Amino acid sequence: YLSLRKARVLGGHGRKPKYLALEQELIKYVKEKRDEGLSVTTHMISTRAK
Q1: pLDDT for 21-37, tens place per residue?
Q2: Residue 26: other Cβ atoms inside 10 A
Q3: Alpha-carbon distance 5 to 10, whole Å?
Q4: Res 6: pLDDT
Q5: Which structural domain range is residue 15 located in?
C-alpha cells in the first residue's frame, strides 16, 4: 500500500507539488511496478512524466 502521504519523503514539510495529478499518476505507476516485482529508477519516472 503506497499512499500519497507515505510517498512524500519530507512528510508534508516541503513544497507542494505543482502538478498534483501528475504526481498521483506517477505514484500509481510506481506502485504497479513494485507490485510486479520490478525496480523503478528515477530515469523511468522522468521519462514517464514527459
Answers
A1: 998 899 899 989 999 99
A2: 19
A3: 9
A4: 60
A5: 4-49
Helix then strand then coil, % of the chain, to nearest 5: 55, 0, 45
User: How many structural domains comprise the chain?
Assistant: 1
Which cell is 35 given? 507490485
- Report the SS3 class of residue 32: helix
Nearest to 50 by CA among 17, 19, 28, 10: 19
pLDDT tens profile 4-18: 566 555 555 667 778
Q: To 10 degrees, what angle do helices 42-49 and 20-35 make?
A: 130
Contact 49, 21 (CB under 8 A): no
Choose among 34, 29, 24, 26: nearest CA to 4: 24
